[in-house]
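Exam review. A common question shows you a sequence with its structure tokens and asks you to describe the fold in words. Practice with the pair below. Do the first one on your own.
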Amino acid sequence: MKTRTIILGVAILAVGALLIFWRLNNAPKPAPAQNAAVTTTTNRSFVNRVDEQGEVKVEIQPGKIEPKAQSQFKVSFNTHTVEFNSDLIKQALLYDDQSHYYKPISWTGGESSRHHREGILTFGSLDTSPKFVELKIKNVGGIPERVFRWDLK
């Protein structure tokens, strides 16, 4: 009787361990990033984009992207090797799927420190209801162009 109870207990533990092992190995896995330098994190219904090419990490957090309203993006630059002297009003453009482009109308943020800069980049109203938008920033940290895309539909 005692041996039977021990065998039953060991069998239950073994089945439980197998179920836990199977569950852990069959859990959904995130899709691999298409470009190792670009990662994403969730923010509301949009996704933050991070580009770590070169010596400057650029993170874009969409605020509001919708037709007939200003589009806003929180932009953060981080580095420990170069100094910032970028003018985002001249270096950034927002494109839509219909080949329209929009120039920034303002940059609101603190002055650049030697290695960090953060602020809000604001664009004028989108003309249409695009399927996607791309924010392109040129010549930051030795990278000719960084592209950040959000699907809207």
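Now try the second one, then compare your answer with the model answer below.
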Amino acid sequence: MYRIKWTNVHFILYTKTKQNRFSFVKSYFKEVLTLDESYAKVSSATKQILYQYMKNDDISLLNYNFNYFFQHCIQKYQIKVISHHFSNRKIEGLTVIDELGISFSYEKNNPIVKQNFTLCHELGHFVLNHNGTCFVESVDNHESLLEREANIF
């Protein structure tokens, strides 16, 4: 059993054995490095597409609004955005890419902040060129690398 006490940037880890402490710390830092690599990848890809959009439309950093960028993307790539509602509310968002085109779906009964996050997350799958034709953001998902990257986006 691990008990972590967070203090500012440092944490104190209490375990029964030195080996358990080493294993936990090793896996913790491996996770942090993976997140850093994902952040760098997502940041680079996002800057390319976002800065080009801002340059082309002569938008300053002070006037940037995510909604404008999102609208630009769905118009440029003819993405259909559809709300949905399932009674169990397990599916937060969905991206489908097939011969009919690209569509994003989001849970319409979620708060607007969560809806915006979900739409940004789904756009992230597309912008980051994730391999696949269907991505599901579910409350039961175990976070895969692709889901983490979309969350970072």
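Model answer, second protein: The chain has a mean pLDDT of 78. The longest strand covers residues 91-98. Full marks require stating both points clearly.
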